[in-house]
């Protein structure tokens, strides 16, 4: 009698456990599957292009790509009001910096992407439409995207949006036409927008929202100030966060700092040491795929 009771009790327990697990799975896995399939498409493209390379490279890319899928499934950081990146949940590493490369892909972006890839450091490349007009230029953008970098919108013609503030259609063309063009090339619309010179208007903010992009300026950058058109000076400024020659005698480097760099000769030369220097100071280079976007 006792034995029968025990067996019955165990059977009920097993049934209960089984039902719990299946519901949990359904809830957890649904969004992952949706995102995963999107990412898989772009991965297929990855392996196609990589097939031309030798086998060991191919394996490496595939392994890294698999990691990216897992990371991509859940956003871990969001853009704060001061444009820094802050963890969404407690327990996530706060000591991160985001690398961004503006005015891409003019001359050095592909080389910069390769440098970053070797260092396993992620970045957002903010692209201008007038740099992707020709098929050759478009191919460069596609390569950067296929390497796993996040692509952002930096307007078609790098205009100061304030100067065309009264022309709604012109503003719309600057943002939306570029998204259309980039979708043709990389197969998806950009999720991030950065205005030239960081100048946004009421209208452009509206368009950014309609296009489901996340607006982003930056925390600091020095490569567009003349004293820092120099590799060594730029490395020091970016790694310390200090730009004493442009009236920043204090450090702007902090947790979540959003670092602005450009497609420039000296930045290209400095990039590797900037990444190494920031890591030596204990900062993780944030994978931009972990930033919350608008669905
Ligand atoms: Zn720019």
Structural notes for this entry:
It contains 8 helices and 9 strands. The protein is α/β, with parallel strands linked by helices and 295 residues long. The strands form 3 sheets. Strands 3, 4, 5, 8 and 9 form a 5-stranded parallel sheet that branches. The chain has a two-stranded antiparallel sheet with strand order 1-2. Helix 5 runs parallel beside helix 6. The longest helix has 49 residues, at 2-50. The radius of gyration is 23 Å and the shape is globular. The relative contact order is 0.14. Zinc ion binds at residues 102-103, 154, 158, 196.
Describe the secondary structure blueprint for this structure.
Elements: H1 2-50, H2 55-72, E1 77-79, E2 85-87, E3 96-104, H3 109-118, E4 124-127, H4 135-146, E5 150-153, H5 168-186, E6 192-193, H6 202-210, E7 214-215, H7 231-240, E8 258-262, H8 265-280, E9 284-285
Parallel strand pairs: 3-4, 3-8, 3-9, 4-5, 6-7
Antiparallel strand pairs: 1-2
Residues 102-103, 154, 158, 196 line the site of zinc ion (ZN).
Straight-line N-to-C gap = 58 Å
- Tell me, briefly, the overall form: globular
> Total strand count, please?
9
Please provide the ordered H/E string of secondary-structure elements.
Answer: HHEEEHEHEHEHEHEHE
**Radius of gyration from the alpha-carbon trace, in angstroms:** 23 Å
Overall pLDDT level:
84
Largest sheet report: 5 strands, parallel
Q: Report the portion of residues in β strands.
A: 5-15%
Determine the fraction of residues in helical runs and give it as a percent range.
Answer: 40-55%
The poorly predicted ranges are: 12-62, 64-72
List all distinct small molecules, including ions and cofactors, that are bound in this structure.
zinc ion
Number of helices: 8
Helix vs. strand class: alpha/beta
């Amino acid at each position: 009698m006792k034995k029968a009771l025990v067996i019955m009790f165990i059977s009920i327990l097993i049934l209960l456990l089984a039902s719990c697990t299946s519901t949990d799975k359904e809830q957890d896995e649904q969004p992952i599957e949706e995102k995963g399939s999107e990412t898989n498409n772009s991965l297929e493209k990855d392996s196609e292009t990589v097939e031309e390379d030798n086998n060991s490279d191919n394996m490496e890319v595939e392994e890294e790509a698999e990691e990216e899928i897992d990371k991509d499934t859940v956003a871990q950081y969001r853009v704060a009001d001061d444009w820094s990146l802050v963890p969404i949940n407690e327990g996530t590493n706060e000591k991160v910096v985001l690398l961004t490369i503006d005015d891409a892909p003019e001359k050095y972006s592909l080389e910069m992407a390769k440098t970053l890839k070797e260092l396993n450091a992620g970045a957002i490349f903010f692209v201008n439409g007038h740099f992707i007009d020709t098929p050759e230029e478009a191919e460069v953008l596609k390569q950067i995207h296929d390497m796993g970098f996040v692509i952002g919108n930096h307007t078609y013609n790098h205009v100061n949006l304030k100067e065309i503030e009264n022309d709604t259609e012109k503003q719309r063309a600057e943002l939306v036409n570029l998204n259309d063009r980039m979708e043709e090339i990389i197969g998806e619309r950009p999720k991030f927008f950065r205005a030239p010179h960081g100048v946004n208007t009421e209208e452009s903010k509206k368009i950014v929202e309609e296009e489901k992009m996340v607006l982003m300026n930056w925390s600091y950058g020095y490569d567009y100030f003349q004293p820092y058109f120099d590799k060594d000076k730029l490395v020091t400024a970016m790694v310390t966060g200090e730009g004493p020659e442009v009236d920043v005698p204090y450090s702007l480097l902090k947790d979540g700092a959003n670092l602005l760099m450009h497609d420039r000769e000296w930045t290209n030369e400095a990039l590797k040491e900037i990444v190494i220097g920031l890591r030596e100071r204990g900062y993780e280079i944030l994978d931009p795929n972990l930033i919350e976007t608008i669905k």
